[in-house]
Write a structure and sequence with these properties.
With about 270 residues, the chain is α+β, with helices and mostly antiparallel strands. It has three domains: about 45 residues, 2-Layer Sandwich (Uridine Diphospho-n-acetylenolpyruvylglucosamine Reductase, domain 2), CATH 3.30.43; about 110 residues, Uridine Diphospho-n-acetylenolpyruvylglucosamine Reductase, domain 3 (2-Layer Sandwich); about 90 residues, CO dehydrogenase flavoprotein, C-terminal domain (Enolase-like, domain 1), CATH 3.30.390.50. Helix content is about 35%, strand content about 25%. It is built from twelve helices and 14 strands. Helix 5 packs antiparallel against helix 8.
């Protein structure tokens, strides 16, 4: 299908992008890699009156060691995250997850900020950021604010970002030697996960988050609590689906997803050394 007619503006700076968002509000959408927005527009599930192209804002593409965390610009491509030496040293779970996003074409065009802002519960990177306790930085014309990953995903394809805000940076705590594991079950290598798991475990705690087990990326809180009480990986994994309502679709029933979650959480925790 052909999208509804729209206006187009290419922002030359973050300030210009924010000015355009402030001017057009709910009628504007940001365009970065375009892998999520353009298909929705072609299906007419999204019909923005204004597209603000931020794809050339190089100031938002970086990966930096920032002391106790790694700072990642929102327009950093998946491929850059996949091959980053900084992330390989301090947050290997994130770089490994990026390696499993889509295919080579997607990874060379898609951005971490676009993936996070789209807030798809079937997407890999949001769950990994949730497991790692990341913080997201949003800017508007009136200033900047930080949002914990636990507060960022508010519903199906919905986030805490306001219409006039631009996600500018993702701050990922360093794993500091903690073990980690990522598991993803899908029909084909480039497909969305039927269920996925990101997990880490260290001397000071653990984090486990699930892909495609609810209307948002979700923390497996019952698994984390079991690990904190000394449970083995296998025993903790039995709590993977506690309190969750996984979706039903052509790929899997809720019961099948619950079973997969237990299997994949156990494997991820074993890889993390739990």
């Amino acid at each position: 299908m052909i999208p509804v007619a729209f206006e187009y503006a290419r922002a030359g700076s973050v300030d210009e992008a924010l000015s355009l968002l402030g001017e057009h509000g709910d009628d504007a959408k940001l365009l970065a890699g375009g892998h999520s927005l353009l298909p929705l527009m072609k299906l007419r599930l999204a019909a923005p009156a204004m597209l603000v192209d931020i794809g050339r804002l190089n100031e938002l593409s970086y990966i930096r060691d920032a002391g106790d965390h790694v700072a990642i610009g929102a327009l950093t491509r998946h491929r850059d995250i996949e091959i980053s030496d900084v992330l390989a040293q301090h947050a290997p779970l994130l770089s490994h997850t990026a390696e499993h996003v889509g295919d080579n074409q997607v990874r060379h065009r898609g951005t971490i900020g676009g993936s996070v802002s789209h807030a798809d519960p079937a997407s890999d990177l949001p769950a990994t950021l949730l497991a790692m306790g990341a913080t997201l930085v949003a800017r508007s014309a009136s200033g900047e604010r930080t949002i914990a990953a636990t507060d960022f995903f508010t519903g199906f394809l919905e986030s805490a970002l306001e219409p006039t805000e631009l996600l500018t940076e993702i701050r990922v705590p360093k794993l500091n030697g903690a073990g980690w594991g990522f598991q993803k079950f899908n029909r084909r290598a480039q497909d969305w996960a039927i269920v996925g798991v990101s997990a880490w475990k260290g001397a000071n705690g653990s984090g486990v988050a699930l892909v495609n087990m609810g209307s948002t990326p979700v923390r497996a809180s019952a698994v984390e609590a079991a690990l904190a009480s000394g449970a083995s990986a296998a025993d903790a994994a039995e709590h993977a689906a506690d309190g969750l309502e996984p979706p039903a679709d052509l790929n899997a029933s809720p019961e099948y997803r619950r079973h997969l979650a237990k299997v994949l959480v156990r494997r991820a925790l074993e890889a993390a050394g739990a």
